[in-house]
Specification:
Length: 109
């Protein structure tokens, strides 16, 4: 873990996808953990919109006795869902869903 000007970062390995095997310094949040998802915009060679690579934070290992997380790593998420399965509070806005729902009057959906 390094600290420069009060900002802490941690060297975090990446697995899978184009970033496989690389270790990058990732800024830590107020809790001392890196963000749950890490998005990397990759510019398009033809000048189109950039492609966004999505990596999800997973534990690197656990301690034997207490089962505490030893560190974090990022694993490539090819679907790019990111926070799709995160905890949603009842008062949160509903998530946008782009799948067709069929006829609302049809009881089978």
């Amino acid at each position: 873990m390094t600290e420069t000007d009060g900002v802490k970062s941690q060297d975090t390995p990446f697995e899978g996808g184009p970033m496989d095997g690389r270790v990058l310094p990732v800024l830590l949040g107020p809790t001392g953990h890196p963000p749950k998802t890490y998005r990397i915009p990759v510019p398009d060679a033809a000048g189109g919109p950039p492609t966004v690579l999505v990596y999800r934070r997973t534990p690197r290992g656990h301690t034997r006795r207490l089962g505490l997380v030893r560190g974090w790593k990022y694993v490539h998420d090819p679907e790019g869902l990111g926070d799709a399965d995160r905890l949603r509070w009842p008062w949160s806005r509903p998530r946008r869903d782009n799948t067709p729902h069929g006829n609302p009057d049809d009881p089978t959906g």
